[in-house]
């Protein structure tokens, strides 16, 4: 998934970025509210993690403008402001959840999973396509009782395809979900991940189909 972290406190932002990248998300980090607002006008995200006290433009203003444009991206507010009125303002302006600093990073991850799950219309952290099961919390996948030994990015590719079973996912969309602005994927990066996944799914009644010129499709056989 593609995540935007808008936070001007470096140690907090770096910790958040590291944890979300470790579990397979592509993460962009902005320290300035105005720059983040401009980025949100041109780049789609699955989740925004937003501080309220920011240079350039405060988080509440950014949130208000985002919802005024009818952007439905889930927003998780993280802030040192603990007053009830602040939380109410953020939630009334369209924030989906609120976490007060200091917080446990495991709780941040759990709240992020809940928002991503809700936006995808899922009731739990499990994705299932035929015999394939992906535990989005545990970051593991299996075919029946057989665990799949997947790298972080292989699991992310499989997760993206499994969240859209039988739909064609363009290669460009996979690249956006796998790499942030600071990373330069090689032209055949996605093909390499797909090729390795196909080898690991070779004996399973499920396959990744290449729809030439369109993208990839996960389907049962």
Question: What this model shows, in words?
Answer:
This protein has 221 residues and is an alpha/beta fold. The protein folds into two domains: 2-119, Rossmann fold (3-Layer(aba) Sandwich), CATH 3.40.50; 150-220, Orthogonal Bundle (Arc Repressor Mutant, subunit A). It is 39% helix and 23% strand. It is built from eight helices and eleven strands. Strands 2-1-3-4-5 form a five-stranded parallel sheet, with helices on both faces. A hairpin with a 2-residue loop joins strand 8 and strand 9. Helix 2 (33-40) packs parallel to helix 3 and helix 6 (152-162) packs across helix 8. The two termini are 27 Å apart. The mean pLDDT is 92.
Topology:
Elements: E1 2-6, H1 10-22, E2 26-30, H2 33-40, E3 47-50, H3 59-68, E4 75-79, H4 84-92, E5 97-100, H5 105-119, E6 126-129, E7 132-135, E8 140-143, E9 146-148, H6 152-162, H7 171-178, H8 189-200, E10 206-211, E11 215-220
Parallel strand pairs: 1-2, 1-3, 3-4, 4-5
Antiparallel strand pairs: 6-7, 7-8, 8-9, 10-11
Helix pairs in contact: 2-3, 6-8
């Amino acid at each position: 998934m593609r995540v935007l972290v808008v936070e001007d406190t470096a140690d907090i932002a770096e910790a958040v970025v590291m944890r979300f990248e470790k579990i397979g998300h592509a993460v962009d980090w902005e320290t300035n509210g105005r720059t983040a607002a401009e980025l949100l006008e041109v780049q789609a995200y699955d989740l925004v993690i937003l501080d309220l006290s920011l240079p350039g433009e405060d988080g509440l203003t950014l949130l208000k403008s985002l919802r005024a444009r009818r952007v439905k991206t889930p927003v998780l507010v993280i802030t040192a402001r603990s007053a009830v009125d602040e939380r109410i303002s953020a939630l009334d302006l369209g924030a989906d959840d609120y976490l007060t600093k200091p917080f446990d990073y495991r709780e941040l991850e759990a709240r992020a999973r809940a928002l991503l799950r809700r936006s995808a219309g899922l009731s739990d952290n499990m994705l299932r396509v035929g015999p394939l099961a992906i535990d989005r919390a545990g970051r593991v996948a299996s075919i029946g009782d057989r665990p799949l030994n997947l790298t972080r990015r292989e699991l992310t590719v499989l997760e993206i395809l499994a969240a859209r079973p039988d739909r064609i996912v363009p290669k460009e969309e996979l690249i956006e979900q796998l790499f942030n602005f600071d990373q330069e994927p090689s032209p055949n990066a996605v093909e390499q991940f797909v090729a390795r996944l196909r080898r690991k799914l070779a004996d399973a009644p499920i396959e990744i189909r290449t729809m030439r010129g369109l993208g990839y499709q996960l389907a049962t056989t």
